[in-house]
Design a protein that fits this description.
By secondary structure, the chain is α/β, with parallel strands linked by helices. It is about 40% helix and about 25% strand. Strands 1, 2, 6, 7, 8, 9, 10 and 11 form an 8-stranded mixed β-sheet that branches. A 3-stranded antiparallel β-sheet has the order 3-5-4.
Length: about 260
């Protein structure tokens, strides 16, 4: 049977627009496709919620791909092994409380299992703004990342969600947008983004979970975005806190959404 290039194009266009139109309104919108965002999306979708993840880059996985300084292994502590086990990521015990996993396998499996659980991912899309009515985040203003990178004047489109999760890591992109809209009103000690501190793995892993919370009505932070928002230190290539943070924010939102 012959292949027709126009039908190939129609297939892609029709399928994409159906997918996009089906996700203009949702329960939870996640910005950032790193480990915490993927884990949050997995548990929310697995519970039957309509959840969409937007990643500005072409690839999903955030900083996990490169392991530590491009040595593509990551470390996970014992407390987070159950997340790896939930997804089926293989790991090796290095010594007590230090477990290594191949970063390529970890990202690939997290992404695959999350999508198969029902998470919809749109890559190359950036959240340039938020919808607010009047004192609550209730959606995102989106544009193509290449448009943003090229500095082109192209108006964005919007999606609506009951909750938004900022999983953008060190950049805290969504939180900073909200900070500009309502200065001094974030639920942090100063009312502003506190900024991340220097590396302290043990403290950072604890604070990642403590700081995973609602920072403004309708807006939650997870992973490194949580530490950067509330002034915690960075943790480097240990990812247990990231995984557990994604699970925590999903559980809290499932409670808020009535499950």
């Amino acid at each position: 049977m012959e292949l027709d290039e126009v039908i190939i194009t129609k297939t892609i266009v029709d399928r994409f627009y159906k997918k996009f139109l089906d996700h203009l309104e949702m329960d939870v919108a996640i910005v950032g496709g790193g480990p915490s965002g993927l884990v949050a999306g997995y548990f929310l979708a697995k519970a039957g919620k309509k959840v969409t993840l937007y990643e500005r880059r072409l690839s999903i996985g955030g900083g996990m791909w490169g392991g530590g300084m491009l040595f593509n292994e990551i470390v996970v502590q014992e407390a987070a092994l159950r997340i790896l086990q939930e997804f089926g990521v293989r790991y090796h015990e290095y010594q007590d409380n230090y477990y290594a996993a191949d970063s390529i396998e970890a990202v690939s499996v997290l992404t695959c299992k999350s999508v198969q659980a029902g998470l919809t991912i749109f890559n190359c899309m950036s959240a340039e703004d938020v919808l607010m009515r009047p004192d609550r985040v209730m959606g995102l203003v989106l544009n193509w990342s290449p448009v943003e990178m090229a500095g082109l004047h192209v108006d964005p489109l919007c999606v609506r969600s009951q909750f938004v999760i900022d999983a953008t890591g060190h950049a805290t992109e969504v939180v900073k947008v909200v900070q500009k809209k309502v200065p001094g009103r974030l639920r942090t000690p100063s009312g502003q983004v506190e900024g991340e501190q220097s590396m302290w793995s043990e403290r950072a892993e604890t604070l990642t979970l403590e700081n995973t919370k609602e920072v403004f009505p309708g807006l939650y932070v997870t992973g490194m975005a949580a530490n950067a928002t509330f002034g915690g230190p960075r943790m480097g290539p240990i990812f247990g806190g990231m995984l557990l943070s994604g699970e925590k924010v999903a559980k809290e939102l499932l409670t808020r959404l009535g499950l």
